[in-house]
Amino acid sequence: MVQPHRQALLIVDVFNDFRFEGGTGLAEQFRPAIPQLALLREHFRGRGVPVVYVNDNFDRWHEDMHGVVAYTREAGPDVSREAADALTPGREDVRLLKSRHSAFYRTQLPALLEHLRVGELVLAGMAGDACVFTTALDAHVHGYKVQVVRDAIASQTQARNRRVLEHLRETLGMATPGVEELVSRIPREGRC
Amino acid sequence: MVQPHRQALLIVDVFNDFRFEGGTGLAEQFRPAIPQLALLREHFRGRGVPVVYVNDNFDRWHEDMHGVVAYTREAGPDVSREAADALTPGREDVRLLKSRHSAFYRTQLPALLEHLRVGELVLAGMAGDACVFTTALDAHVHGYKVQVVRDAIASQTQARNRRVLEHLRETLGMATPGVEELVSRIPREGRC
Amino acid sequence: MVQPHRQALLIVDVFNDFRFEGGTGLAEQFRPAIPQLALLREHFRGRGVPVVYVNDNFDRWHEDMHGVVAYTREAGPDVSREAADALTPGREDVRLLKSRHSAFYRTQLPALLEHLRVGELVLAGMAGDACVFTTALDAHVHGYKVQVVRDAIASQTQARNRRVLEHLRETLGMATPGVEELVSRIPREGRC
Amino acid sequence: MVQPHRQALLIVDVFNDFRFEGGTGLAEQFRPAIPQLALLREHFRGRGVPVVYVNDNFDRWHEDMHGVVAYTREAGPDVSREAADALTPGREDVRLLKSRHSAFYRTQLPALLEHLRVGELVLAGMAGDACVFTTALDAHVHGYKVQVVRDAIASQTQARNRRVLEHLRETLGMATPGVEELVSRIPREGRC
Question: What is the ipTM of this complex?
Answer without folding.
Answer: 0.92
